[in-house]
Amino acid sequence: MESSKIEHAKRVEQLRKMELKRADYMKIEKAKREVEKLESIMMVSSAIESTSDEIVKLREEEPYPQLVELVKGLVFFF
Is 64 helix (H, G, I), strand (E, B) or coil? Predict the structure, then answer.
């Protein structure tokens, strides 16, 4: 994710310079597509990271207390 952010910043700066210099239209469009692609990658990475964090949180918070209660119950049962 961090490398995508660095690459994105670099590409945005390149695009800005190209637009200021009034570079070839096709080159500018290609640079815009590259920036958009990196933005998409960063959005997907962010979504995956937040989903993964939520899964870890649920795994740690939900089943563990229930498992502890189950084990306590089994100890008293035997």
Answer: helix
C-alpha to C-alpha distance for 39 and 35, rounded to whole angstroms? 6
Residue in this structure with the two tokens 């740690």, named with its chain if needed: 60
Question: What's this model's pTM, rounded to 2 decimal places?
Answer: 0.67
CA-nearest of 4, 6, 10 to 39 is 4
Per-residue pLDDT of the chain (78 residues; tens, 9 = 90+): 788 899 999 999 999 999 999 999 999 999 999 999 999 999 999 999 999 999 888 887 777 778 888 888 888 877
Q: How far apart are CA 61 and CA 65, in angstroms?
A: 7
**H-assigned helices in the chain:** 2-20, 25-61, 63-77
